[in-house]
Amino acid sequence: MYVGRPTKWGNPFRYRTSYGLARVPAVDGSPWEYEGRISAAGTRHDCYHPDGTWTVHNIRYMTRAECVHMYHRALAMPDAHLHIHVGAGLPWLTVQDVQRELAGMDLACWCPIDDGEGSRVPCHADVLLEIANGGDPS
Fold first, then answer.
1. Cα separation of 130 and 90, whole Å?
2. Do residues 64 and 121 lie in contact, with contact meaning Cβ atoms separated by under 8 Å?
3. b/e string for 113-131 if b means 16 or more Cβ within 10 A?
4. Residue 18 pLDDT > 50
5. 23 SS3 class
6. Does pTM top 0.90 for this prediction?
7. In this model, does residue 38 exceed pLDDT 60?
8. What whole-number distance in Å separates Cα of residue 118 and Cα of residue 128?
9. Nearest-angstrom CA–CA distance, 74 and 60
10. Does residue 96 contact residue 62 with C-beta atoms inside 8 Å?
11. Which secondary structure element, helix H or strand E, spans residue 130, and what is its range?
């Protein structure tokens, strides 16, 4: 079964587009987080804190692995913040949807198999396969 865009299984966190931006560092201090606001790579979204201090946050494109990580997170750990920005008003998928509709199927996507240097490129179909076949979604 084809699971790429524009199917309902397609990853809305799109590599090198405005749907795949990261804030660096994250507001909580971790290395990066999903940037769900209207933004563009190369800009800044500084965080102004109630105590009058502020921190600099740069916006960049997420890597392919980060886009796949966000897809996994949105499926396995529902987060209202992600759903506001992802899916263009479409109902979001659940782990149960994946297990019910994709269990035992072979999945195909348009992602390249490797990066041209022999390293495997992550794909959201890997996430769907793991969850569909009973893997731990968390």
1. 23
2. yes
3. eeeeeeeeebbbbbbbbeb
4. yes
5. strand
6. no
7. yes
8. 23
9. 20
10. no
11. helix 124-132
